[in-house]
Amino acid sequence: MPLAAYLLVSLVLFVLGGLGLMIRRNPLVLLMCVELMWNGANLAFVALGRGLEAMSAHVFAFVVITVAAAEVAIGLAILVLVFRGKARQDVDEVNLLGERG
Amino acid sequence: MAVTGMNFTLLLPELILVATGILLVLLDLFTEQKRVLVYAGLAGVLASLLALIPGFGTTASIWADMIQVDSLAGFFKIVFLAVTALALLVSLEYVERRQIQAGEFYALLIFATVGMFLMASSLNLLVIYLGLELVAIASYALVGLLKQDGRSVEASIKYLLVSSATSAVFLFGISLVYGTTGSLALPQIAQALAAGAASQPVLFAGMLFLLAGLAFKVAAFPFHMWAPDTYEGSPTPISAFLITGAEAAGFAALLRVFLVGLPGLADAWTTIFAALSVLTMTYGNVTAISQTKIKRLMAYSAIAQAGYVLVGLAVATGQGTAAMLYYLLVYAFMTVGAFAVIILVANSGAGEEISDFRGLSQRSPFFAWALVIYFLSLIGIPPTAGFFGKLNLFSAAIAADMTWLAVVMVINSVISAPYYFKVIRTMFLEEAAEAEPVRAPASLTWATAITLVVTILLGLVPDQVYSWVRLVAGAL
Questions:
Q1: Is there a contact between B243 and B333 (Cβ–Cβ < 8 Å)?
Q2: For the whole model, what pTM was predicted?
Q3: CA–CA dist B103, B84 (Å, integer)
Q4: Helix residue spans in B121-199 (DSSP H)
Q5: Where are the domains of chain B?
Q6: Could you give the CA distance from residue A25 to residue B35 in angstroms, rounded to a whole number?
Q7: Is residue B112 within 8 Å of residue A46, measured between CB atoms?
Q8: What is the mean predicted confidence (pLDDT) over B219-237?
Q9: d(CA B291, CA B227)
């Protein structure tokens, strides 16, 4: 398969994640959408690394996976706090802050 | 592989900070006196500052070209250490009163500082990205550390979702730039660009992604929507730390990526930065006028100030860079100072509404006058430091034939005056409900005194500092 195909898939993943971020309301699903965006970028790295025959892209992909794991760990911890306060399943209900005060 | 690049002496400031962070976590287990942690943290910051001295004036690329030690990195490290030290000082009372877990709080603060160091001291996109994430992940936790307060948790989840989405955008931008230039090192990217080997449309898209990702970090309009909520909900010392430190780190990364890595596309990005700058300062100032909460007011003020700083990138000259650096330095001190006063009022039992500042001039004249000076500096009235900061940006814009941008800046300064004066009027002309004096802890008095002296000093003798900053900007 040509490089362009992989890049297209990575772009589709990235855009799907971005779209999900805009239309879904459950914070857990939002977190998953963000992960999809990250993995879109990651796939692009690995594909480009193969295409350019350079190892630096593969290293980058590993680093990104590690960072994403850390990010999810803390994201889930914060989600637990959000849900513990009130069983809120919808980010639109997380609205203590804002202009209305 | 050879390990010749491993230079521990030049990496010492970062190593000391990491050690301090770990030490704070351990120390927290063994002591009930949480004040010790602040003193240990301050000692670590001071040691890191001293460790900067051997690397001063040298330009070196160490650790397989991953870390760049130069005067720009040195300048930003000094700013970050100053912000961290001040944040530790203003946190002391706040952490005790709100019963925040002290060990985690101070250790994360130090680790976030290490992330800022990495953002400012690398010419490699991988390390810049890692630094950015280190700051971000530490900040998510810091913002949400008031676990009983729903607002803090909400600020944290909002910050997390927006910030990680923008990290993904930044990451995708890196992959596009990497794909077209074949390198993650900014100097090589610039070379590939100059050689014209890169296919332009994809690279251009990558540049836009990088720009958007970093614009989120400095809260530029239209990428600002997380900022007011995050800064309002987070613990107040953390608001101060993020507004000054994390934002300065964002600008450091912007300077590196665009001036070192992508000068070949300067025609495009200067126009974008000019537009962002105008939108950001106007939006920030206009929205700030109607705010009734002091932290939201400061958040919008921070957005407006980021707009002023962006002028330096819009002109893309050495003079512009120098003006940016000077403004970031001044901004760090005057903003942390203003937050010290906000923390004082909040600690005294009043809330964080502007109306809670009623009669502060009688309850605590020193802090009331200090806030007046910070605000005059934020507006840009001489002889405060903020005036010279704005003047430098202003002359940089005129020197680069962007007089219209300078005019917009001046108009914005005028728009910004009423909302700062509203707070000053509340402090001096309205009576307090209770007239008893505010008890000021020594830590807050120290933080206020230091920031006050710097704000006035940088206004009275700006030339020496500015000539140093010019030198730093010239080395980029």
A1: no
A2: 0.93
A3: 15
A4: 125-143, 150-181, 186-195
A5: 262-476
A6: 42
A7: no
A8: 91
A9: 14
- Per CB-CB distance under 8 Å, the chain B contacts of A74 are 137, 140-141, 160
CB-CB neighbors (< 8 A) of B229 in chain A: 97-98
Q: Quick check: B126 and A63 CB within 8 A?
A: yes
Find tokens 């008890």 and name the residue.
B439
- B238-258 pLDDT per residue, tens: 999 999 999 999 999 999 999
Cβ under 8 Å to B: A residues 64-83: 64, 67, 70-71, 74-75, 77-79, 81-82
Q: Does B153 touch chain A (CB under 8 A)?
A: yes
Residue B409: strand, helix, or coil: helix
Query: What is the pairing mode between strands B67-69 and B60-62?
Result: antiparallel
The reply to whether B176 touches chain A by the CB within 8 Å rule is: yes
**Is the ipTM beyond the 0.95 threshold?**
no
Q: Which of B38, B39, B47, B55 is nearest to B17 (CA)?
A: B47
- Residue to substitute from A64, A65, A95, interface B, most B β-carbons within 10 A: A64
**CA of B80: how far to CAs of B46, B73, B75, B260, in Å?**
12, 10, 9, 21
Helix (H) or strand (E) segment spanning residue B80: helix B71-98
Q: Cis before residue B222, ω within 30 degrees of 0?
A: yes
Instruction: For residues B266 and B272, give the distance between their C-alpha atoms in angstroms, rounded to a whole number.
Output: 10
* Token pair belonging to B238: 């953390």
Among B128, B151, B171, B209, most A C-beta atoms within 10 A, so best to mutate, is: B171
Instruction: Name beta bridge partners: B67.
Output: B62
**b/e A24-51 (16+ beta carbons within 10 angstroms → b):** eeebeebbebbbbbbbbbbbbbbbbbeb
Rounded to the nearest integer, the mean pLDDT of chain B is 90
- Please give the average per-residue pLDDT across B262-281, as a whole number: 92
